[in-house]
Amino acid sequence: MPSSLIDHSATAENSRQKLIENYMRIRNISLQICAPLMVDDYQIQSSVEISPPKWHLAHVTWFFETFLLEAFDSEYRPINPKYGYLFNSYYQTIGSMHARAKRGLLSRPTVEQMLHYRSEIDKRIIDFIDNLDESQWQQAAFRLTLGLHHEQQHQELLFMDIKHNFWNNPLKPSYLERSQPAIKTTGKLDWEERPSGVVKIGADNDDDFTFDNEKPSHQVWLEPHRLSSRLITNSEFLDFMEDGGYSRAELWLSDGWSHIQNTQWKSPLYWEKHDGLWLEFTLYGLEALNPSAPVAHISYYEADAYARWAGKRLPSEAEIETKLLEIPVTGHFSESGIFHPQAGTDQFYGSLWEWTTSPYLAYPRFKPLEGSMGEYNGKFMCNQWVLRGGSCVTPEDHIRPTYRNFFYPQDRWQFSGIRLADDL
């Protein structure tokens, strides 16, 4: 499991210095992600689910200003009091906020002003870490670490949202040039038999950072089952499509069938057919569909329909977590510079988030964080589904076996895919 961003074994002075180093490293990664953008790209919001890159960079900065600088200093005055309204996302206990669907209309503050805001808050945070009284350090260190993991979530969102913004442009611009050729071969789809029994899932180690929704650890019963050895590929999903997958009501959940009738989905997001050939839009631009690569940007509805067509099912989050606990956290995460899922086997980490059959609900004895921090995860435990594993645009030191991602069943702009399970 990745270590915490706080080094608990170090001296107090070294612990603060280590946190400063991690703070600056993670903050700089956000800027590096945006480095290929032109100034015009920072403003685009292609749908209500998407936020402009400029907003992301400002919002994560507002998080540090609000939950650290303001929270620990009653005399602190914000750089711009109006930023709290513009860059608050969903913290109702903090105050009102600008409508999510209108974030793309914020031409001001400018990109230059937003970058200055980030720089100024970084200076203040470093000074804050250096000078905070020891009696407040543990609470502040937790919030700083939470803020860094929060920024890493937005780093993943930046890749997702930039891709959606560029795809909506008729020019189909590329975010980056592909640095290495795509892998065109994949392994055989095998099955691992896994026994029944009582297993423990969830986190309870306070020495390593986890979100509140990963706690507490608890026991669940698993029936005997099988897990597939890799994710479903584009070629396999194309077989589903060619067998009338999108037009066969018997394969779909009722809500899913209604959704695809209303949206007229006929293929995964980012697939386009030109002159009889399937292409896929990636962060490298529009490319020929790689039949061996995992099918990506799949909704829960599509994943469930495919599993039913294949005579299988999706795994539960407990089935996935017990497997994740057995293997190292390795894969093509964002640090690899490969921003599209690769063909291969295993793929439990660092390829695509995997849909599960588990609704996003609280674990037994779950308790949200106190105060405004309690709005972070718990209030979203309704009508969403859990995904596990991490994607090719997830930072590696952000992920762990107990990590619970969650999206609405119709969402598919995230890097999500399909792993199959079966009952024994």
> Could you tell me the strand content as a percent range?
5-15%
Order of helices and strands: HHHHHEEEEHHEEEHHEEEEE
Work out the number of β strands: 12
Shape: globular
Helix content: 25-40%
Radius of gyration: 22 Å
Name the average pLDDT. 94
What spatial order of strands do you see in the largest sheet?
10-9-8-11
Please mark out the parts with pLDDT under 50 across 5 or more consecutive residues, or reply none.
none
Task: Profile the largest sheet.
Answer: 4 strands, mixed
Q: Look at the helices and sheets and give the structural class.
A: alpha+beta
The termini sit apart by 30 Å
> What's the tally of helices?
9
Could you give a short description of this structure?
By secondary structure, this protein is of the alpha+beta class. It has helices at 12-34, 53-72, 83-87, 111-131, 134-167, 234-242, 254-263, 300-309, 317-324, and strands spanning 191-194, 197-201, 218-222, 225-228, 271-274, 277-282, 285-288, 353-359, 385-388, 405-407, 416-417, 421-423.
Task: Please specify the SSE layout and strand pairing.
Layout: H1 12-34, H2 53-72, H3 83-87, H4 111-131, H5 134-167, E1 191-194, E2 197-201, E3 218-222, E4 225-228, H6 234-242, H7 254-263, E5 271-274, E6 277-282, E7 285-288, H8 300-309, H9 317-324, E8 353-359, E9 385-388, E10 405-407, E11 416-417, E12 421-423
General description of the model:
By secondary structure, the protein is an alpha+beta fold. It has helices spanning 12-34, 53-72, 83-87, 111-131, 134-167, 234-242, 254-263, 300-309, 317-324, and strands spanning 191-194, 197-201, 218-222, 225-228, 271-274, 277-282, 285-288, 353-359, 385-388, 405-407, 416-417, 421-423. It has a four-stranded mixed beta sheet. Helix 1 (12-34) runs parallel beside helix 5, helix 2 (53-72) runs parallel beside helix 4 and helix 2 (53-72) packs antiparallel against helix 5. The protein is globular. The two termini are 30 Å apart. The mean pLDDT is 94.
